[in-house]
């Protein structure tokens, strides 16, 4: 790689690092909301809502296409996030 391209690459990586920090802050906010959601659920079987998951994924696909983002990428990201939070809910669910 040329020195000029290496410099350009480093600039782009710094931009990605800044963006990653913003994403982390959003994930923290999402986690706090999920903690509140857990308190509203009375039974463990309420943790997984397949209709809601399907609805979310359809909406993400539609918006991804609208924003010209490869929907395969966003679907994979959202499925991983959804199931990670389902695991989080299961781990933190307290029987009432």
Rounded Rg: 18 Å
Residue runs with pLDDT of under 50 for 5 or more positions: none
Cα(first) to Cα(last) distance is 60 Å
For this structure, what is the CATH class? Mainly Alpha
Q: Per CATH, what is the topology? A: Chorismate Mutase Domain, subunit A
CATH superfamily: Chorismate mutase
Strand content: under 5%
What is the string of helix and strand elements? HHH
Give me the number of helical elements: 3
Task: Explain this structure.
The structure is a single chain. The radius of gyration is 18 Å and the shape is elongated. The protein is mainly alpha-helical and 96 residues long. The chain has a single domain (3-92), classed as Chorismate mutase (Chorismate Mutase Domain, subunit A, Up-down Bundle), CATH 1.20.59.10. It contains three helices and no strands. Helix 2 packs antiparallel against helix 3 (71-92).
